[in-house]
Amino acid sequence: MSRRTGRTCIATAGTTVFLLAVASPAHAGVGDGQGGTVVEERPTPESDGSDTVGMHIAVHGNAPASGTPMAPAPAANWKPPACWYEPMWKPKAYKEALRTESPTPQVLGDYAEEYQAYQKKREKQNYNIGKKGLWWSLHYETGKDDAECLAKEREIWVPKGNPPEDPAAIDPQMLAGIAYDNTELPTPPVKLSPGPGRQVVNLETRIVFKKPLNRVWVTAGIDHLGVNIAATTVATPKALTVKAGTDHAEPKSCTYNLSKAHGGYQVDSTDADCNITYKRSSGKGGTYTFSASVVWEVTWTDSADPDGRPVAQPALPDGNSVYEQAVTVKEIQSIVRD
Questions:
Q1: How far is CA 208 from CA 38, 240, 259, 265, in A?
Q2: Contacts of 333 (CB under 8 A, 6+ apart)
Q3: CB 254 within 8 A of CB 273
Q4: What is the pLDDT of residues 9-32, one digit of tens each?
Q5: What DSSP string runs through 194-210?
Q6: Which of 67, 188, 191, 271 gives a 20 to 30 Å CA spacing to 255?
């Protein structure tokens, strides 16, 4: 399973001084990777297959971690969260962290003087000891660092009973974005008829799934220091688009709506009006790249329940998963006798 490094930062605005560095999984497992059915399961709290994103966000889904990361639809103007604040310390624990886990001057380098001033600022505040609330720390994903995140204060004080004022503070909407970013989908289990090695000129290509596709859900939640919130994204397969991989086909592409069948979502183009038909052979030793893309409709709930009531706005973009297959197309020679 791929992994990315997550960082929890303590620094003055505009600098990047790392107090803690942790490795966090990139994607919770939600695809079977074999082109087969994704089994709908509800993991138990004792054994839910959770991964950790950030410092305290648990992410889990309904299938093993061997699929393909869900890609937003090409036209979607959407990006996953680049950074967020998580509840991290009570005041006394924050004081202890700053004192015992501070970077050395050698690590700080040019930021040593600035960091010392930063410590003095917190000492002057007495770390808010005696006040009711929590210090929330900024977490961001390596490879997604942006200027807006790097300019943020590396921790914020959130009084008890008050919602965090910074829009980057973790909430159900932010968790939904994290869940989306950690969704993996099964490869479309496409079966061609005739098979990929037996395609024939002027013979239409029929499509079916070897096994039905099931919906894929991922929950991201945090339960730390009294902050207990979650969100769940649900990706439901709704359409399949296939492309011939050459201009020598009529039509060059077809789109099929998926229908419920055998406990999942299936396609069967046997009687469809649109089936790709190759008009020229791929040549000796040559192939065409046949591709199939499934569009997944994504909804989300502001809870850990994938069957909960979907939140209407803001909507999440459709996702895509892709299958490619080299196909060999041959001419059938016939002999006409008088």
A1: 17, 10, 12, 11
A2: none
A3: no
A4: 443 333 334 443 333 333 333 333
A5: S-TT-EETT-BPEEEES
A6: 67
Cβ atoms within 10 Å of 337's Cβ, excluding its own: 3
Pair 186, 35: CB distance under 8 Å: yes
**Predicted pLDDT at 254:** 97
In the chain, what is the straight-line distance between the N-terminal and C-terminal CA atoms, in Å? 64
Report residue 16 CA to chain centroid gap: 26
CB contact at 8 A, 206 and 193: yes
For residues 36-75, b (16+ Cβ closer than 10 Å) or e, as one string? bbbeeeeeeeeebbbbebbbbbbbbbbbbbebbbbbbeee
**Could you give phi then psi for residue 235, rounded to 5 degrees?**
-105, 120
> Which among 93, 264, 270 is positioned nearest to 191, based on CA atoms?
270
Question: 120: helix, coil or strand?
Answer: helix
List of residues 6+ apart from 188 with CB closer than 8 A = 35, 209, 213, 240, 292, 293, 294, 321, 322, 323
Burial of residue 280 (CB within 10 Å: 0-12, 13-18, 19+) is middle
Cα–Cα separations (whole angstroms), residue 286 to 106, 194, 250, 280, 292: 60, 17, 19, 12, 20
Q: Report the predicted TM-score, pTM, of the whole model to 2 decimal places.
A: 0.82
Contact call for residues 51 and 183 (beta carbons, < 8 A): no
CB 156 within 8 A of CB 166: yes
Q: From CA 137, how far away is CA 87, in angstroms rounded?
A: 6
- What is the chain's alpha carbon radius of gyration, rounded to the nearest angstrom? 26
User: CA 252 to CA 289: how far, in whole Å?
Assistant: 12
Q: Which phi and psi angles does 182 have, rounded to 5°? A: -105, 20
- Dihedral angle, C-alpha 107, 111, 115, 117, nearest 10 °: 150
Number of residues that make up the chain:
338
Instruction: Read off the pLDDT of residues 238-288 as tens digits, 9 standing for 90 and up.
Output: 999 999 999 999 999 999 999 998 889 999 999 999 999 999 999 988 999
Contact 28, 66 (CB under 8 A): no
